[in-house]
């Protein structure tokens, strides 16, 4: 399996941001790490191995990037306005820097996004904000309301990075039709230890109210918030989509 690491100093974020790519052909997949982890997390925890057969067959090329969670949502010492501003600049890093790289390498194709836990939030938020340049999302075990991380603080940067806030109010002739024609919107959750299926159901209810087709896939009470299950969830859905 071909593996390439690229890094550059991001103009949007003012920091070095590496990206790893696996494979050289097929449908592009953009992966967002959990919590404060880095761009190689999915490799270390063998999630990449779980989809290797698609990559080696040329059906899929996967990209994994860093997040800014350690400086933003998970940084208890940062003022709320700065945490929210970083989320917006991270969104700009994705749209202005990462997505053009992927489209260039993937013959103009835009990716579907994925991630687990906090990576599910990032992958879903990226898709819902940019359905014109992202093709869908597979979000595993996520929470889609980041307001608890801001202790009551609110501004436009919080609002427009909080799917359960902006999606109910979405009513336009540009984004809404595109959301209704995604390649796939899959919201996955277990019901075991440390899972919170009510968060996925909340997002699903909002999407349903806006007429956005999607799949809410709720796994069993033995399915915990942990890597062994994410290594099953992602290939299970990629098998259906590729």
- The second-level CATH architecture is 3-Layer(aba) Sandwich
End-to-end C-alpha gap? 18 Å
- What's the total count of β strands? 8
Oligomer: single chain
Q: Could you say which structural class the secondary elements and strand pairing correspond to?
A: alpha/beta
Fold-level CATH name: Rossmann fold
The structural domain count equals: 1
Going across the biggest sheet, name each strand in turn: 1-2-4-3-5-6-7-8
CATH-assigned homologous superfamily: Alpha/Beta hydrolase fold, catalytic domain
H/E topology pattern: EEEHHHEHEHEHHHEHEH
CATH class bucket = Alpha Beta
DSSP helix count?
10
Give the CA-based shape.
globular
Description of the molecule:
With 242 residues, this protein is α/β, with parallel strands linked by helices. The chain has one domain (3-241): Alpha/Beta hydrolase fold, catalytic domain (Rossmann fold). The chain is built from ten helices and eight strands. It has helices spanning 41-44, 47-50, 52-56, 80-105, 118-129, 156-159, 163-166, 175-179, 197-209, 227-241, and strands at 3-10, 15-22, 27-32, 60-65, 112-116, 136-140, 184-189, 215-218. It has an eight-stranded mixed β-sheet with strand order 1-2-4-3-5-6-7-8, sandwiched between helices.
């Amino acid at each position: 399996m071909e593996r390439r690491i690229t890094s550059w100093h991001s103009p949007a974020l003012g920091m070095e941001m590496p990206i790893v790519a696996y494979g050289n052909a097929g449908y592009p997949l953009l992966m967002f790490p959990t919590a404060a982890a880095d761009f190689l997390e999915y490799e270390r925890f063998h999630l990449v191995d779980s989809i290797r057969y698609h990559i080696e067959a040329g059906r899929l090329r996967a990209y994994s990037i860093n997040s800014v969670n350690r400086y933003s949502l998970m940084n208890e010492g940062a003022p709320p306005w700065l945490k929210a501003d970083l989320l917006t600049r991270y969104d700009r890093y994705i749209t202005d820097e990462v997505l053009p790289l992927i489209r260039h390498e993937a013959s103009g194709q835009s990716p579907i996004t994925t991630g687990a836990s906090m990576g599910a939030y990032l992958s879903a938020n990226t898709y819902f904000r940019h359905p014109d340049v992202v093709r869908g999302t597979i979000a595993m075990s996520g929470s889609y309301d980041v307001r608890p991380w801001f202790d009551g603080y609110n501004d436009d940067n919080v609002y427009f990075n909080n799917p359960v806030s902006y999606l109910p109010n979405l009513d336009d002739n540009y984004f809404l039709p595109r959301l209704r024609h995604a390649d796939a919107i899959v919201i996955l959750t277990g019901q075991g230890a440390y899972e919170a299926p009510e968060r996925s159901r909340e997002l699903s209810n909002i999407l349903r109210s806006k007429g956005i087709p999607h799949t809410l896939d709720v796994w069993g009470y033995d399915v915990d918030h942990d890597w062994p299950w994410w290594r099953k969830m992602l290939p299970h859905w990629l098998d259906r989509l590729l």
